[in-house]
Amino acid sequence: MGQEPRTLPPSPNWYCTRCSDAVPGGLFGFAARTSVFLVRVGPGAGAVPGTPPFRVVGELVGHTERVSGFAFSHHPGQYNLCATSSDDGTVRIWNVDTKAIVSEHALHQQTITALHWSPRVKDLIVSGDEKGVVFCYWFNRKDSQHLFVEPRTIFCLTCSPHHEDVVAIGYKDGMVVVIDISKKGDVIHRLRGHDDEIHSIAWCPLPGEECLPGNQEENSEEPGIPNGKVLAQTPVTEGCYLATGSKDQTIRIWSCSRGRGVMTLKLPFLKRRGGGVDPAVKERLWLTLYWPENQPTQLVSSCFGGELLLWDLTQSWRRKYTLFSTASEGQNHSRIVFNLCPLQTEDGKQLLLSTSMDRDVKCWDLATLDCCWTLPSLGGFAYSLAFSPVDTGCLAIGVGDGMIRVWNTLSIKNNYDVRNFWQGVKSKVTALCWHPDKEGCLAFGTDDGKVGLYDTYSNKPPQISSTYHKKTVYTLAWGPPVPTMSLGGEGDRPSLTLYSCGGEGVVLQHNPWKLSGEAFDINRLIRDTNSVKYKLPVHTEISWKADGKIMALGNEDGSIEIFQVPNLKLICTIQQHHKLVNAIAWHHELGSQPELSCLMASGSNNAVIYVHNLKAVLDSNPESPVTITEPYRTLSGHTAKITSLAWSPHHDGRLVSASYDGTAQVWDVLREEPLCNFRGHRGRLLCVAWSPLDPDCIYSGADDFCVYKWLPSMQDHSRPPQGKKSIELEKKRLSQPKPKPKKKKKPTLRTPTRQESLDGNEEDGKDLAEPAENGVSDQDGEEDAPEPEPPCVLAATVSREPVNCAPVTSSLEKSKVTMNNKVTSAKKELPKEKADALLKKRKARSMLPLSTGLDHRPKEELHRDCLALATAKHCEELNKDVSADLEERFHLGLFTDRAALYRMMDAEGKGHLDNGHPELFHQLMLWKGDLAGVLRSAAERGELTDSLVAMAPVAGYRVWQWAVEAFAKQLCFQDQHVKAASHLLSIHKVYEAVELLKAHHAYREAIAVAKARLRPEDPVLKDLYLTWGTILERDGHYAVAAKCYLGAASPYDAAKVLAKKGDAASLRTAAELAGIVGEEELSASLALRCAQELLLARNWVGAQEALQLHASLQSQRLVFCLLELLCRHLEEKQLPEGRSSSSYHTWASSTDGPFVQRVTAAWRSGFGLDTPEQYRAAFEKLQNIKCPSATSNTPPRQLLLHVCHDLALVVLSLQLASWDDAVRALLRAVVQSYDAGSFTVMQEVYSAFLPDGCDHLRDKLHGQQSPAEPALRSLEAFLTYGRLYEIWWALPRPCPEASRWVRAAHPAPCVEHGGQADSAEQAAPEAAAQPEPGRGPEPDCRLTEEGQRVLSACGELLSEQHASLQDARRTVAEVQETLAEMIRRHQKSQLCRPAAGAPDGEAAQEAEQPHARPPSPCKEEENEPVSLPELTRRLTAANERMAKFPDSVKTWSFPDVLECCLVLLHVSSLCPGCVTLETQRQARELLQKYGSTNAYRRHCRAFCTGAPGP
User: Fold this and answer.
1) Parallel, antiparallel, or unpaired for β 626-628 and 569-574?
2) I need a labelling partner for 297 at 20 to 30 A (CA). Which of 271, 710, 985, 1005 fits?
3) What is the pLDDT of residues 833-863, one digit of tens each?
4) How far apart are the C-alpha atoms of 856 and 845, rounded to whole Å?
5) 3-state SS assignment for residue 1346
6) SS3 category, 1100
């Protein structure tokens, strides 16, 4: 079995007409709660050989409430798009490849109930709501249409596969309406016949009404029902069949040409083995349909108890149907089916997928009608996970949907071999525990306090204990029977009994042999054995050590008690946690270190895990209980309560924990190190279990209805998220709205719960509403019996509305209930005003309360005091009796000697301490004059106060210094770090005070102290600034971080951190700062970045002001000025590249004269650029700046900036009469536009700088020997290339207007190859395809003389030298791409290769593709695998060819020669005679010689052979 990660997903949503869909290629999706899960089906799933070919591959997350509809786009080329509707009121379009939202709308005002993606229109999604409103949404153009057809609740709708404007709508009252959306929702037909909800509508896959025998209405069980007349001429007059399924137990076939029913099929009642559902119970029926595309005479429908029927529509009067999966028992669904959707896999297999109330997704082979595989799912929280110790690999899952899943994780034939157990459960399964020795014996506990035993190898109902817990069962554990007498004699006593801990705080012992007998409360034995007189704590967790000799009980107050068998003698109490204990786990005894078996890990409602080593306690077997307050190991990192713990059975000291922070964490306990953190869940984790076979495999369950199998070695994180990340995870997990709990009368008593609200306010003692975990999938309930009340006093009604509610408290949360059931009368609380008045009148507490009390005894006792005092004062020698009497009467010390007074003070002080008044004890000690003793005693107890420390100097300097240090330590433990630092300063410990503040992140206070008390050059101060600045920078507080860096004399870092935000204001401030501190280079770069940011907003004035910040940017100011003028020029021509909403400078307002003159005038007036020396300096600066080459992904504004950089060099070169540089710079600007695919910019560059062509530049160059001659030839070629396209785009119109290139004439007979280009914006290879045959005559388009001159000059474009070079470059690119693809496939095949036998890497990669492109006849050699030596040979040959070309040809770009050939041939076909025969022959020869690459192959065939394209 390959140990790849797996997911047990949530159940598909119930009672939705379209919540699952699939597309060809093997991708299936279904809506579950607030998201959509995606499943890859078929060879592309990458499943382990021998297992069913499917795998859960992703999830679409974004909706905040239940997803009510889901549909894929069934249009080739966009199978990766899908649409969802939700109860949150939105309809969203998704890209399943990126899991991102493409578009969305929130047009509906009511709950959306139906959704469909039109099979005829690529971007049309139709949705309807419960008020009868229909919205048609075209997401490509963001357009919508509102239709209100009927004031009824829409239940389903389906768009016609034959007519793009026809939609059929089914309503809750049984009405079916067919509308035309192109006519504002005009009703074509109202089809009446059903009398209950319409659950499904299916169109016949074939248009027309010939696929079924005629006159069917005469043979149907009921006569055809006439309907409303057709309102107008409609697109369905030729007819089409429509099938509807209703809750009234009938299927009706309708004729859309006649508007009446032609066939009625009544569902049969199938008596299945094991009983069935009464067909009269309409609530248990959902009738969904699927009309097979390749079998129009057959129809698939669901039935009463989950069966699927294949109807034969040719003999409907006989009700002939075939039952799915008749050969195999148990393959059908056991509950009603909600959705059916077809799927065609990559290998052509026709499948049908179904979702059902039994929470299974099944896949059916339509050829054999057998079930191929089943994907189980969960309908509630995953509360408990337990691996069987006997049947290794058998994982039991306790789920909140009232069922137990037993997952055979070792199954070779099925990755999801899951069995369901639901009989006798009828409530949420909150606890599970396998018998340690007996195979198949599984104990379970439920939300309603039930405890039972299942035999998983039989079909018998479970045994249920007759003793119920009053609240939720938290934990189950098997252990030895205690005491022996409670279970009868030796023969009646099992070796192991079942212990259960419930929410009321009681642990019960159940006899598995006699569950009908009364269970034993172990508190009785604990009380008797340990002679407990006080009230026992509320138990919340139980765990037995593996050897069965020690039991641990976790309590509500955070304590853990360790008991020893057989009489449960208390030997140890652990006082570590301060909140309710949720989990206890003992280390296994299988490791290499036996002493580790005494390790016990525990987790509570706080986020810290404590591990205690009890070996010393267990070995010593103490007579009296030992109290432990220090842990062996502390594991900190989680940010919310701990819910589950599990030790790895494969490692020593390795633990995994589950937490409410949404993560599972693996720890190295012995080293106290976090190893890896799993963040795959979208909810709070409730349970975790380590695989008993695979050391790198863990299973976890959460309140997101999922169980994940994950690999610790594959996790990206090592510890739980902290700070902002934790907050974001919390928002992601709780993105669903919370239900508003109904107001209930406040009860007299509050019952604390085990797992409190998410805020952790356990002190409030308030129980929040029970989570409506089945609110999405289970809105109509799961059992016939009503839902049990939540197990808490403040019971809140679980929402039955079909909305998803965020979990507030888990039903697993354990209540903290006191043992006595007596209701004590609470004292009446006094009003606040009266209470305050009483506090003001209250007397000060007596310093000598014991003595005062003894002086208020009866008169006889007071008389004896007087006699004893007199004896002591006046007798010289006291006998023993008198001395003993005086010691008992210690209060007489006030009247005798000092020693007796000290004894009285000691007694009074002890009383103060016992009563919790240490301050009074300290005052008594001060009265005695023992100030040092007072301070020492207070320090030991952590009770030092300001007043005590203030009096410490009386005892001497050393005592005062020691007292201040002790008080500082005490304040640190109390988190009063600033106050502690202040006291350290009082004894001149400045460095210690600064370090204390720094260690607790009080950097501001630490810096204040350091600057006030230390020398300015002290390195501590700089370290403080740098440390604080680093932290502020990490948290995004860049301005304060910059201040820190300035304080630390690091101005460079200050400027850099200010610029980190990247907005224009921050960049400008950073540039100014860098200029002030002398960082000239940094200032210049930041100012330029600021100007570029302002450029994006077209803030021309702001950009120039930013560039003025640094003198070295004068040349860039010229570029920005030229860019502003060019944008103004483009705006005048109303081109999109020049659109601007910002104001221009005054120099850009003038539009007179040539563009170059306007630029030089603006430079002269705006920047004083006039002399040749200034031009030369600016030219040299700009020439040293290199711009990156443009690509098709270069943003338009960035492209314009780069082009203007080269154009600025052109203008400067023209002013300096440097014609060679001008030609090169102008060619670079043109090539930048050409490479970016911006034809408009390229043509505008020519119109602005070369309005009359390149002749004057050639005249300026000195003959053919000029070094810029090759660049000039390329420049002329691009000029001709652009004009050639302008001629082509002027030709295709049916009636072209007269233009610069074309002269319109009267229509003439169509030429042989006349045609029209697809679009003016398409690339030449695609646009130059063979013209469409059969078109009408085109107008006779004649070229102007200028157009003829351009075409005659096109011979320069047909350069064979450049064609050969471009062909070699294309060959190199294709070989490199092929090699990269081969390497990628090989790497992925190695990565995805499972442990047990791997498929071929290349096949696996091809299977991963969602839908492979069909092979083209023109790509024979592409379909054949190419060997590596052959690719190497091609690459070497191409490189050798390229090496032979001169540098002048390779350096300068040239238009694509083959593209020019295709355009010329296309122009010649549109306008015969305009291109010379010699040019056409030359173009065809070049295409035949170099047109072998994939981009040109099809077009070469069309032009060179005359054959039509494929």
Assistant:
1) parallel
2) 271
3) 444 544 455 567 777 888 777 877 887 877 8
4) 17
5) helix
6) helix
Our separate counts of H helices and E strands in the chain read: 40, 59
> What's the token pair of residue 998?
């720094």
Interior angle at CA 207, CA 206 and CA 211, nearest 5? 60
pLDDT at 813 over 70: no
pTM: 0.53
Q: How far apart are CA 392 and CA 385, in angstroms?
A: 14
1290-1327 residues labelled b (16+ CB within 10 A) or e (exposed): bbbbeebeebebbeeeeeeeebebbbebeeeeeebbeb
Residue 1397: φ, ψ to 5°: 75, 120
Rounded to 10 degrees, the C-alpha dihedral 688/690/695/698 comes to -30
Residue 310 bridge partners (DSSP)? 300, 322
Q: How far apart are the C-alpha atoms of 14 and 30, rounded to whole Å?
A: 11
Supply the Cα-derived Rg of the chain in whole angstroms.
43
Q: Rounded distance, CA 1347 to CA 1339, Å? A: 17
**Exposed, middle or buried: residue 1423 (CB in 10 Å: 0-12, 13-18, 19+)?**
exposed
8-state DSSP, 18: B
Separation in Å, CA 157 to CA 71, 172, 1410: 12, 12, 28
Interatomic CA distance for residues 264 and 254, integer angstroms: 9
1369: pLDDT strictly greater than 90: no
Q: How far is CA 978 from CA 798, 993, 1022, in A?
A: 49, 9, 21
Strand partners, 760: none
Residue 1111 neighbours by CB distance under 10 Å: 9
What one-character DSSP code corresponds to residue 1422?
H
Token pair belonging to 1293: 């119109």
Query: What is the 8-class DSSP label of residue 890?
Result: G
DSSP conformation letters of 335-371: S-EEEEEEEE-TT--EEEEEEETTSEEEEEETTTTEE
Between the ranges 118-122, 628-632, 1077-1081, where is the mean pLDDT highest?
Answer: 118-122
Instruction: Report CA-CA distances (Å) from 901 to 504, 894, 897, 923.
Output: 53, 5, 6, 15
Tokens 């009700």: give the residue: 319
- Cβ atoms 381, 702 nearer than 8 A: yes
Cβ atoms of 1344 and 1271 within 8 Å: the answer is no
Look-up: residue for tokens 């030596």?
1429
The torsion angle over the Cα atoms of residues 589, 591, 594 and 597, rounded to 10 degrees, is: -40
CB 113 within 8 A of CB 155: yes
Q: Are 1235 and 1189 in contact (CB under 8 A)?
A: yes
Map tokens 């919310």 to a residue.
640
DSSP codes joined into one string, 1156-1196 = HHHHHHHHHHHH---SHHHHHHHHHHHHT--PPPP-TTS-H
Q: Amino acid letter at 1308? A: A
| Integer CA distances (angstroms), 219 to 315, 756, 826, in order | 9, 66, 80
pLDDT tens digits for 636-676?
Answer: 999 999 999 999 998 889 999 999 999 999 999 988 899 99
* Residues contacting 1495, CB < 8 A, separation 6+: 1325, 1370
